[in-house]
Specification:
mainly beta; 6-stranded antiparallel barrel; 6-stranded mixed sheet
């Protein structure tokens, strides 16, 4: 199981005091207000950052960090991802799972045939879409709705989907 969950991507700097603009990748935009620490993924290492300020601008979060004191220190953070550890992740409801825990799952059809691997996901205005890849490298998309996602076994890294004509 994944230890860290992405909550945002730093898009650019904001001002001269080292603040950054963050595009949130979490369902709860206001969760940044409650966080004391997050982790910056930099060259494969999760570096803890202490949040010193939080405010909002349009669809972005503007964060300040105690460890980042000026724009020169903030510049290298552009396009880096921010994470929380599992302990500080949003609690799950019954039947829910963290998306990071299902990435890499083997995908099967209803008859038990291996279709490929769950590679990634994307969020659209309408719904979440899973990006799958066959063993041959062909990509296909599956809406993350009950009509298509029949079973998800996080522990076994297994997903069963309903395939319709033209999906793959």
């Amino acid at each position: 199981m994944e230890q860290y969950f992405r909550i945002g991507v730093i898009t650019t700097t904001h001002g001269l005091k080292g603040e950054v603009k963050v595009y949130p990748t979490t369902e709860d935009l206001h969760r940044f207000e409650e966080l004391e620490t997050c982790f910056l993924l930099d060259k494969g290492t999760y570096r803890p950052l202490t949040i010193s300020s939080c405010r909002y601008f349009k669809n972005l979060v503007i964060l300040g960090f105690e460890e980042i004191g000026d724009i020169d220190a903030a510049m290298p953070l552009k396009q880096k991802e921010l994470y929380v550890d599992r302990e500080h992740a949003i609690p799950l409801e019954e039947g829910e799972y963290y998306l990071a825990d299902v990435i890499g799952s083997t995908v099967y059809d209803e008859d038990g045939n291996v279709l490929g691997t769950l590679e990634d996901y994307m969020e659209t205005a309408a719904q979440l879409i899973y990006k799958m890849k066959t063993a041959e490298g062909k990509e296909f998309l599956v809406p993350a709705v009950d009509e298509f996602i029949l079973e998800v076994d996080v522990e076994a890294k297994k997903m069963v989907i309903r395939v319709i004509p033209g999906m793959i």
